[in-house]
Amino acid sequence: MYIQKYQTFRKGDAIDYIEIPDGRYGARGLPRMKKKKPTKEQIAEINKQNKERRCRAYLMEYFHKGDTFATWTYRPSARPPDMKSALKDFQKSIRKVREEYKKKGYELFWIRNIEKGTRGAWHIHLAVNAIPGTAEILRKAWTKGGIYIETIRDSEKFGDDDMTRLAAYLTKDAKMGDKKDDGSREKPRLKESSYGHSRNMQLPPVRKRKLQHWKKEVKPKKGYYIARIWEGINPYTGFKYRRYTMIRIERRHDDEGSDLRHHNARGSRRKRRKLRSCRGIHHPKGA
Predict the structure, then answer these.
(1) How confident is the model at residue 183, as a pLDDT?
(2) What is the phi/psi pair of residue 230, to 5°?
(3) At the N or C end, where does the chain have fewer CB atoms within 10 A?
(4) How many helices (H) and strands (E) does the chain have?
């Protein structure tokens, strides 16, 4: 007996799957490695992967390849003394961006990573949903240094369909370096980092279904293609697992944006509250 967990994004334009053996029944027909206590390095790797996957889920649900990736840099004289000060700088600037979006009748969604390099330079990586005038809004809001702006689709670093590379880039930290082609990690290039996202983003629920057999090969649903697939061994249980993403060939929402961003801010909030109510998701007051 096996369990398939799946999460649907953008009204079915993308679907994430994970398949694992049901712990109550074991993994009939699959070889199992000897169970071992995970090392500190393995735990750190798992934590990093979990953070990347959650970031990727937000990107898959709320962002598109036509949206904006920006980097706010600090000139040397304006560098913050610590992360607390850098967070205040970001909060002040993103507040200005939010106000401008609201004036234009849009709601702002953002994901950011504040980073301090090993040589003392600071910068903020920022993904935001694009609206008319986004680049100018971001430039005016940031007064501590320069700004680099590009669309997600035009980036050579993270222009993949399922946002995997962008999620990895936005969740870099001082504990683990970038992943190499062979799966190993480079030495960390950061001395300090702080990852965060806007509070107005709610993820769709993760659903489950039971599977009787472990399929040797995954085939896409009709009208979809498999964008990425991973297979491996869980170091905690020794069982094999599989993750994959299917993307609709003819997407209902194009790369320029979803239906959420074309409504005014108040209307978007009402629509999301209705969606959460239908899905049975509790939204704490004030969140």
Answers:
(1) 62
(2) -125, 145
(3) C
(4) 5, 10
DSSP, collapsed to helix, strand or coil, labels residue 104 as: coil
Can you read off the two tokens belonging to residue 85?
């000060």
DSSP three-state, residue 177: coil
Tokens of 244: 């994959």
Q: What is the number of residues in the chain?
A: 287
pLDDT per 10-residue tile (average), the chain, 287 residues: 93 94 57 64 82 95 94 97 98 98 97 96 97 97 97 80 91 79 73 96 96 89 93 76 93 53 47 44 36
- Mapped onto helix, strand or coil, the DSSP state of residue 123 is strand
Q: How many angstroms separate the first and last alpha carbons of the chain? A: 39
Under 8 Å between Cβ of 272 and 202 = yes
Q: CA-CA distance, 229 to 223, in Å (whole number)? A: 18
Angle among Cα 274, 63, 175 to the nearest 5 degrees reads 115
